[in-house]
């Protein structure tokens, strides 16, 4: 009998923030040095072991943008299978508690009206978040 060692797929849970302010939504452009260079995303990052999605999001937004947020509502979880790993995006509608943003990881940020979001070159996983955000907005009206 032949035995084959199969490595487990890496599953990465990534809470992210759809930050609303004055009718606009914050989009962050990934650094050229990161995976998916210069693609657009909703800010956030990997949850650490034994860290809740919410705690991870508060920490990541503080690290990436140096602001505090308030979580308003969770959107549906989406995932993107990349073969060797699966990225699970856990999006939350958020609002800023502090307004002075300092970028530490992104090339730039933009504030866009919801109808403008599709004009950017987003990561594939974030495209699903946009669809769910549009659904959220249609129900909210």
Topology of this structure?
Elements: E1 10-21, E2 24-29, E3 40-41, H1 53-65, E4 69-74, E5 78-81, E6 85-96, E7 108-112, H2 124-140
Parallel strand pairs: 1-6
Antiparallel strand pairs: 1-2, 2-3, 2-7, 4-6, 5-6
What does this molecule look like?
The protein is an alpha+beta fold and 141 residues long. It has a single domain, classed as Nucleoside Triphosphate Pyrophosphohydrolase. Helix content is 21%, strand content 33%. Strands 1, 2, 3, 4, 5, 6 and 7 form a seven-stranded mixed β-sheet that branches. A hairpin with a 3-residue loop joins strand 5 and strand 6. The chain is globular. The N and C termini lie far apart (62 Å). 26% of the residues are buried.
CATH architecture call: Alpha-Beta Complex
Structural class: alpha+beta
User: Which residues sit in consecutive blocks of at least 5 with pLDDT less than 50?
Assistant: none
Name the helix and strand elements from N-terminus to C-terminus, one letter apiece.
EEEHEEEEH
CATH superfamily: Nucleoside Triphosphate Pyrophosphohydrolase
Give me the CATH fold name: Nucleoside Triphosphate Pyrophosphohydrolase
- Gross geometry: globular
Give the integer mean of the pLDDT values.
92
* N- to C-terminal distance: 62 Å
Separate helix tally? 2
Helix percentage range = 10-25%
CATH class: Alpha Beta
DSSP strand tally: 7
What is the C-alpha radius of gyration, as a whole number of Å? Answer: 16 Å
- Strand fraction: 25-35%
* Main beta-sheet annotation: 7 strands, mixed
How many domains would you count in the coordinates? 1
């Amino acid at each position: 009998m032949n035995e084959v060692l199969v490595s487990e797929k890496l599953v990465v849970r990534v809470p992210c923030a759809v930050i609303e302010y004055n009718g606009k939504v914050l989009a962050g452009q990934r650094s050229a040095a990161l995976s998916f260079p210069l693609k657009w995303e909703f800010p956030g990052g990997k949850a650490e072991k034994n860290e809740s999605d919410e705690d991870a999001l508060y920490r990541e937004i503080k690290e990436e943008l140096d602001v505090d947020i308030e979580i308003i509502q969770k959107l549906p979880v989406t995932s993107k299978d990349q073969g060797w790993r699966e990225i699970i995006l856990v999006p939350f509608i958020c609002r800023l508690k502090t307004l002075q943003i300092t970028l530490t990881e992104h090339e730039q940020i933009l504030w866009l009206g919801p109808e403008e979001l599709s004009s950017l070159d987003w990561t594939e996983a974030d495209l699903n978040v946009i669809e769910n955000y549009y659904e959220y907005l249609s129900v909210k009206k």
